[in-house]
Amino acid sequence: MDFKTWRHVFKLDPVKEITDGHLERICRSGTDAILIGGSDDVTLDNVVYLMERLQRYALPVVLEVSTIDSVAPGFDYYFIPTVLNSDDPLWIKGLHHRAIREYGDILDWDELIPEGYCILNGDCKAAKLTGAKTDLTTNDVLAYARLAEHFFQLPIFYMEYSGIYGSIDLVRKVKEVLSETRLFYGGGIDSADKALAALDVADTIVVGNIIYENIEKAIETVEAVAETAD
Ligand SMILES: CC(C)=CCC/C(C)=C/CC/C(C)=C/CC/C(C)=C/CC/C(C)=C/CC/C(C)=C/CC/C(C)=C/COP(=O)(O)OP(=O)(O)O
Ligand SMILES: O=P(O)(O)OC[C@@H](O)CO
Ligand SMILES: [Mg+2]
């Protein structure tokens, strides 16, 4: 159940509808884990509804926390984003401070996994919400990765291209400067080829939107990854 071994993860958005049949295919696909997360309209009700539907499947389920009001107990892990390329302290440590001030005495710290986000698609909702500076040079991104590993000692550095397929060359360069911190890549993976190319340079790939657009293509991404393990 160690997230450090995960290679392929599906990200389900609690705001989007998914049929029981599609959910079953996702959960029985051989993916390593399910991440529940989204950047707007996430509520306690839609998180709990999705979580309950996932309980029958034997795979790790993680809540990627985007608002404190939508946190439900019972997840295997809670991934906590901190947006390194936002200049607004709210999204770097402000909401986190508020949450810890409120719940610090009862938190199980082993379940909380901080993620250093570097948002690279300026048009995605998460970029707009957090005011992320996405007009970055290669050196900027490498510096965020080094900051994550050597300064903040974050277990995950997440290159977030949500909605578009990013620069695999840049992901490769980031991977070369990380050693302890796991590199997550997410954005625009909608085929076996894109999954394999991204996994070739990242530790873990995250597949989201295509689940809702073309379930066959979504399943192909995990089948391709499974074949590389044979
Ligand atoms: C009941 C119980 C167990 C209580 C304890 C509570 C608990 C576990 C507290 C944790 C402590 C803690 C430190 C919490 C932090 C709280 C918090 C709100 C942090 C802020 C997180 C953050 C920076 C959010 C910004 C948005 C973001 C980066 C979201 C990540 C997910 C993401 C990018 C999804 C993609 O969204 P999507 O909707 O698909 O967007 P696109 O359309 O653009 O693709
Ligand atoms: O939805 P897509 O573009 O697959 O991106 C996955 C994930 O990184 C979104 O947070
Ligand atoms: Mg999305």
TrEMBL record:
Keyword annotations: Lipid biosynthesis, Lipid metabolism, Magnesium, Metal-binding, Phospholipid biosynthesis, Phospholipid metabolism, Transferase
Function: Prenyltransferase that catalyzes in vivo the transfer of the heptaprenyl moiety of heptaprenyl pyrophosphate (HepPP; 35 carbon atoms) to the C3 hydroxyl of sn-glycerol-1-phosphate (G1P), producing heptaprenylglyceryl phosphate (HepGP). This reaction is an ether-bond-formation step in the biosynthesis of archaea-type G1P-based membrane lipids found in Bacillales.
Subunit (UniProt): Homodimer.
Protein name from the UniProt record: Heptaprenylglyceryl phosphate synthase
Family to which this protein belongs: Belongs to the GGGP/HepGP synthase family. Group I subfamily.
Taxonomy, superkingdom: Bacteria
Cofactor: Mg(2+)
Pfam families the UniProt entry points to: PcrB
Catalysis performed (reactions): sn-glycerol 1-phosphate + all-trans-heptaprenyl diphosphate = 3-heptaprenyl-sn-glycero-1-phosphate + diphosphate
Organism, as annotated: Planococcus antarcticus DSM 14505
One GO BP: glycerophospholipid biosynthetic process
Residues the entry annotates as binding sn-glycerol 1-phosphate: K11, Y158, M159, E160, Y161, S162, G163, G188, G208, N209
Gene name of the encoded protein: pcrB
Transmembrane segments: none
MF terms in GO: heptaprenylglyceryl phosphate synthase activity; magnesium ion binding
Annotated pathway: Membrane lipid metabolism; glycerophospholipid metabolism
Enzyme class: transferase
Binding site for Mg(2+): D13, S39
Enzyme Commission designation: 2.5.1.n9
